[in-house]
Amino acid sequence: MQLVVARIGRAHGIKGEVTVEVRTDEPELRLGPGAVLATDPASAGPLTIETGRVHSGRLLLRFAGVHDRTGAEALRNTLLIADVDPDERPEDEDEYYDHQLIDLDVVTEDGTEVGRITEISHLPTQDLFVVERPDGSEVYVPFVSEIVTEIDLDAQRAVIDPPPGLIDDRAEVASARDADAEDADAEHADAEDAGDEA
C-alpha cells in the first residue's frame, strides 16, 4: 500500500536541499538516504533521497539529480509516497501508522458512539484524531493515553475517556455566583469556628 510520508516545502540554500513537512512517525526509516519514493504529481518522481539532515528543527533533504535551487523549487508542494506493507506494524507496540487508525469507530468507555476517525493531524506537540460525528460535524481528540484508552484494530475501534467539554458542550463549569456562594459559606464557617474558639 502507498502512504504519503512527507510534503516538500521551499528550497533551502543553493545546493538543491528542500525543507519537508514530515507526515510519518518514522522519518528515519521512510526518509533516509537511499530511499526511493513515488511522488504526487507522478511526473516529479520517483525521487531518490541522497542526503538528509535536521536544521533548526526542520528536516532537509537533497535528492539525486537535484543540485541547485531552481531544481529544488520545482519540487515544492510535491507529496512523497512510500510503499508500505499493509500488515507492517511500528516497532513500539503503542504506536500505529495513520492508515491503521483511519476509519476506526470512536466510542466512549461506556460504549457511546462518538464518530469515525477521518484524519490524523500531526502537530508539533501531539497528534490529534479528526473524528467525524454522525451529524457530519468534526471533533478533535488528542491522541494521548489519558484520553485514548484503547486501540483495538481487530474490532476496528478506538475507546476514549474524554474530559468534560471535549466531545460535547456540557462542560461542568461552576458559575461565578456558585463560586461566590461557596466563598460566603466558607467565610461563615470560619467565623463560627473563630467564635467557638473564643
Q: How is this structure best described in words?
A:
- This protein is α+β, with helices and mostly antiparallel strands and 198 residues long.
- The chain has four helices and twelve strands; from the N terminus they run E-E-H-E-E-E-H-E-H-E-E-E-E-E-E-H.
- The strands form two sheets. Strands 1-2-5-4-3-6 form a six-stranded antiparallel β-barrel.
- About 7% of the residues have low confidence.
Radius of gyration: 25 Å
Number of strands: 12
- How many individual helices? 4
Largest β-sheet summary: 6 strands, antiparallel, barrel
Tell me the helix content: 10-25%
Q: Averaged pLDDT, please?
A: 80
- Shape label: elongated
The span between the termini is 80 Å
Structural class call reads alpha+beta
Low-confidence residue ranges: 170-182
**What proportion of the residues form beta strands (DSSP E)?**
35-45%
Strand order of the largest sheet: 1-2-5-4-3-6
Give the helices and strands as they follow along the chain: EEHEEEHEHEEEEEEH
Write the SSE topology:
Layout: E1 2-12, E2 17-22, H1 27-30, E3 36-40, E4 47-55, E5 58-63, H2 69-74, E6 79-83, H3 98-101, E7 105-108, E8 113-122, E9 127-132, E10 138-142, E11 148-152, E12 157-160, H4 176-197
Parallel strand pairs: 7-12
Antiparallel strand pairs: 1-2, 1-6, 2-5, 3-4, 3-6, 4-5, 7-8, 8-9, 9-10, 11-12
Structure keywords:
4 helices; six-stranded mixed sheet; 198 residues; alpha+beta; six-stranded antiparallel β-barrel
Give the gist of this structure.
The protein is of the alpha+beta class. The protein has 4 helices and 12 strands; from the N terminus they run ββαβββαβαββββββα.
